[in-house]
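Re: the request from the purification team.
They wanted to know what the chain is likely to look like in 3D before they choose a buffer screen. I agreed to run a prediction and write the result into the notebook, where they can find it.
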Amino acid sequence: QVQLVESGGGLVQAGGSLRLSCAASGSISSINTMGWYRQAPGKQRELVAVTITGGRTNIADSVKGRFTTSRDNAKNTVYLQMNSLKPEDTAVYYCNVDLWVAGRGPFNSWGQGTQVTVSS
């Protein structure tokens, strides 16, 4: 009843930029948090950035100053702007949304993941 569609990944050289987007659709009453996680090969999934209703954001120290996140509440879409990319940013990036499904209650959903590869 809820779908997340991610886009924007790809291959970029070190120092370059990419912008990821994640659009939520379905029987959504409200959205609490919209965030981004990433998982590199052989590593655990880690938080990159999250936005909370009201505008507060939390950015991982490893990307602070390079990545920013924003939301378009009218479109139920969250963005991750990634600048000054480094090879260590290479990972699959996942969108995560914590929301309220109309008539059913709280629900947490993950996107399908999008590959970001940064070459040196």
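For the purification team: The mean pLDDT is 95.
Please add any questions underneath this entry.
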